From TrEMBL:
Pfam families found in the cross-reference section: NAD_binding_10 (PF13460)
Top-level division of the source organism's lineage: Bacteria
Gene3D superfamilies documented for this protein: NAD(P)-binding Rossmann-like Domain
Domain (NAD(P)-binding): residue spans on this chain: 7-190
Record PANTHER family: FLAVIN REDUCTASE-RELATED (PTHR15020), UPF0659 PROTEIN YMR090W (PTHR15020:SF50)
Protein name, UniProt field: SDR family oxidoreductase
Entry-linked SUPFAM superfamilies: NAD(P)-binding Rossmann-fold domains
């Protein structure tokens, strides 16, 4: 299975690319926005495509062409203003969904945020970000794609433990980015996650077991 990872140069994306590249089941295509990022992946023997999420749907579709699945883990980043959050985390995500449909990709996984599906639980200091995630997720649910929405808690730059809690609704918590990548990897062909969304934080169950019990 060829997997296009949108936001491959991000911290979750890089963990996921390594998992995919090390596997016998998947072949990653790193979807990035800068030439030097693409060059870096290619030097590692990993396919890479240049895609600007603020470009047209047609241009995005060319970067995705040939893939069997898309993982959207891109984001505007914490240093940008709300306009970039809307253009990347919301409109960029929706255009990627439209692009996937244009080139007949059915499988789509998006990285959202803990409790993004419940407005009353949004982080007050990150309201534009949560709004973008909420409506991107809604559009994915309506898209007709075979989707999975993964809503991780606070993201940590720590080594993963391989153990999580996964459920439709979880209270606040955090999780290493490495474990989010492992959950994405485990969800790609796990039919129990098809057309479902779930919160994800560190816990006590092995990742594959946790997502099968959602």
């Amino acid at each position: 299975m060829k997997v296009a990872v949108v936001g491959a140069n991000g911290r979750i994306g890089r963990h996921l690319i390594k998992l995919l590249d090390d596997s016998e089941q998947f072949n990653p295509n790193a979807i990035v926005r800068k030439e030097d990022q693409a060059r870096s992946f290619k030097e590692e023997g990993i396919a890479a495509s240049l895609v600007d999420l603020e470009a047209s749907v047609e241009q995005i579709s060319e970067g995705l062409r040939g893939a069997d699945a898309v993982v959207f883990t891109a984001g505007s980043g914490g240093a940008t203003d709300s306009d970039k959050t809307l253009l990347v985390d919301l409109d960029g995500a929706v255009k990627t969904m439209e692009a996937a449909k244009q080139v007949d990709i059915k499988r789509f996984i998006i990285v959202s945020a803990l409790q993004a599906h419940h407005r009353e639980n949004w982080n007050e200091s990150l309201l534009p970000y949560y709004a973008a995630k909420h409506y991107a997720d809604k559009e994915l649910e309506r898209s007709g794609l075979t989707y999975t929405i993964i809503r991780p808690g606070g993201l940590l730059n720590e080594n993963g433990t391989g153990k999580v809690s996964a459920a439709e609704n979880l209270s606040r918590g955090s999780i290493p980015r490495e474990d989010v990548a492992k959950a994405i990897y485990a969800s790609l062909t796990e039919e129990h996650t098809y057309n479902r969304g779930f919160d994800l934080i560190s816990g006590t169950k092995p990742i594959e077991e946790a997502i099968k019990e959602i």
